Amino acid sequence: QMMKHAWDNYKRYAWGLNELKPISKQGHSSNLFGNIQGATIVDALDTLYIMEMKEEFKEAKEWVEKNLDFNVNAEISVFEVNIRFVGGLLSAYYLSGEEVFRKKAVELGEKLLPAFNTPTGIPWALLNIKSGIGRNWPWASGGSSILAEFGTLHLEFVHLSHLSGNPVFAEKVMNIRKVLNRLDKPEGLYPNYLNPSSGQWGQHHVSIGGLGDSFYEYLLKAWLMSDRTDEEGKKMYYDAVQAMETHLIRKSSGGLTYIAEWKGGLLEHKMGHLTCFAGGMFALGADGAPKDKTGHHIELGAEMARTCHESYDRTSMKLGPEAFRFDGGVEAIATRQNEKYYILRPEVIETYMYMWRLTHDPKYRQWGWEAVEALEKHCRVDGGYSGIRDVYNNHESHDDVQQSFFLSETLKYLYLLFSEDDLLPFEHWVFNTEAHPLPVLHKDDGNTEENQK
């Protein structure tokens, strides 16, 4: 019902545009997608399919066939377009078998290739998909590319090679690993900034939240998606978790485990909502953890889930802030006004879903249901769902954006949390960082040419 409310209103007021403004009942276009349109449609395809919303899926597919156009003169975020558009199209193809989605995914993948035309092959953050000219975010340390952005292409690009028979996509992302493996890591940690020209780190900031997050997720998932044959990805992941445990993971005086941010050796005791995905990641990786560490990784996941649940529980609205702190006597609470907002983010629910599937402890469903009730009470408006400016306030101040990832991730993870485990089982599917399921590539999948027929 939530999906239907979000979708019907998008369709009514913003059809074909990127996102919906549910209060003003009109379209919203973020500059992340340049002039490419239809982000909500492409992001929601697999959710519609999984929820068996067949009519809606059919309308969405027809829109993609007729209107999804990448021949635009515009600068896009390589990362956002990859995880939402390429990821969304790949999943829609694998779930439905509809050829249009494969064709569009490969076409878009080809448009993204010029981003890799740098001295090191570390891609630019921003790309004009008409001219093929790339650059980095002007605010990023010394012209650097961002770890979470160039580190979150691997799953999609491996599948693009698999579906197109063109090895270049997989080669581009394997080269990123080569560059990273040649570099010295401060304390075994990966800084958030890497200069694509010099191949050297920018400032030594490390975060498992924004700027870093999905890089780590993709190391683990690359190994899982390869049917556990990608030993390099596996080693990089478990080594990184070891370094996190040593340098970033801390326990508050109130007994909450959290992941701090590292700035040139100094810890900032703050954790972002984005970092809350890590509970699910630790649990998902528990099974392959080094000698007898499985229980420890599950425990780490459970502790993260609890901390992130506390960040929700300690607000008036029972929805979590963008970031929360562990200093000056506060725990799991946002202390700065610009960290008190909630933009319909999925990461906490994502962790509940993984923890439920891997432990079947009923509290994760209970916590998920608390989030459903809070979303219905505070974020649902006549025209869809809106983010909130201050979750500690008793009166809603809506931000008037229904993010495409609300349909792609938040609602999908909630649906999976309350579904049977055999819906998209983990042994066959790996979710990209936008919750788009991609199949595990089994060794007996045959050669790519055969798969194309």
Automatic annotation (TrEMBL):
Molecular functions per Gene Ontology: calcium ion binding; mannosyl-oligosaccharide 1,2-alpha-mannosidase activity
EC number, UniProt record: 3.2.1.-
Active site as annotated: E80, D213, E322, E347
Main location group: membrane
Membrane topology qualifier: Single-pass type II membrane protein
Cysteines joined through disulfide linkages: C276-C308
Cell location: Endomembrane system
Cofactor: Ca(2+)
Pathway(s) it belongs to: Protein modification; protein glycosylation
Protein name per the record: alpha-1,2-Mannosidase
GO BP: carbohydrate metabolic process
Protein family according to the UniProt entry: Belongs to the glycosyl hydrolase 47 family.
Keywords from the UniProt entry: Calcium, Disulfide bond, Glycosidase, Hydrolase, Membrane, Metal-binding, Signal-anchor, Transmembrane
InterPro entries with a match to the protein in the record: 6hp_glycosidase-like_sf, Glyco_hydro_47, Glycosyl_Hydrolase_47, Seven-hairpin_glycosidases
Keyword Disulfide bond: yes
Pfam families: Glyco_hydro_47 (PF01532)
Function, in words: Involved in the maturation of Asn-linked oligosaccharides. Progressively trim alpha-1,2-linked mannose residues from Man(9)GlcNAc(2) to produce Man(5)GlcNAc(2).
